Amino acid sequence: xxxxxxxxxxxxxxxxxKYEISEAHLIPEWGIEGDAHAGKWHRQVSLLSFEKIExxxxxxxxxxxxxxxxxxxxxxxDLRNVPVGTIIRCGDAVLRLTQxxxxxxxxxxxxxxxxxxxxPREGVFAExxxxxxxxxxxxxxxxxxxxxxxxxxxxxxxxxxxxxxxxEDKSGPLMVEIxxxxxxxxVEYILLPDNKNRLKRELIRLADxxxxxxxxxxxxTGFSERDITPEATLEVCDRHxxxxxxxMRWYSLSITPKAMLSRQASGIRKKTLIVNMPGSPKAxxxxxxxxxxxxxxxxxxxxxxxxx
Length: 308
Hints:
Blueprint: E1 2-10, E2 19-21, E3 24-27, E4 31-32, E5 45-49, H1 50-58, E6 72-75, E7 87-90, E8 93-100, H2 109-114, H3 119-122, E9 124-130, E10 132-134, E11 139-142, E12 152-158, H4 160-164, H5 171-181, E13 185-192, H6 196-208, E14 214-218, H7 229-236, E15 239-240, H8 242-253, E16 266-269, E17 272-277, H9 281-303
């Protein structure tokens, strides 16, 4: 699948509208040279389909390229349906798609003027893997996903004390370390307070926009009134996958009878598996050692690289 670059846009300062440029120098792990939104994060380059801009213009809106905050206007590809992880080649430059859509916290000028903006639902984002210079008229090639690619994972720690800085989070970093050793690509590690709405927002964002294969949470699964992790997890899931949580409880009961007090849950949102882990580092290591091998088959089925 290929698309044609119709425009390249850049802004010198955040909060200002992007303007068209004749070519762009793509810098690995950074983005477009001189662009205010470049940096060491996963949204280095933004892309928007020309066809979606034309649909917006057909409603009577007179918008120039760059008005939605997009870096690249691409013709011939429905970007919204390109899966995260897709490798994109353009000449010497190589990019990787990292996110579909985005949350819009502060509405842009377009939204305030016409009451709508297509970037949050139609825009996609990429990181630069290999340096190169691109210009309008160049073709971008979208490569099929490698079936042997690593699984992607996100780790979320729920702890009021750790979030406030009065307690060091040891379970989250330990989980990241174990998963990396097992071959997982860690997309994000997040530390949150025990807040249901904040956890739900992160779970939805990571599943819908970043399309991670699995999200592991640690903490918030006990009897305290602030322990809301299972409730938040099940409220965002489309399907339950109770066997994983049940298996961990069964295994932990062979180590301590207090495992019966764990309320951890597991479920699926779209193609993302969400698994609640206990809060202690010792229990995290024990449970991960127990579930990681069989879990790989389920993750492969979810992303379509394994069969039943």
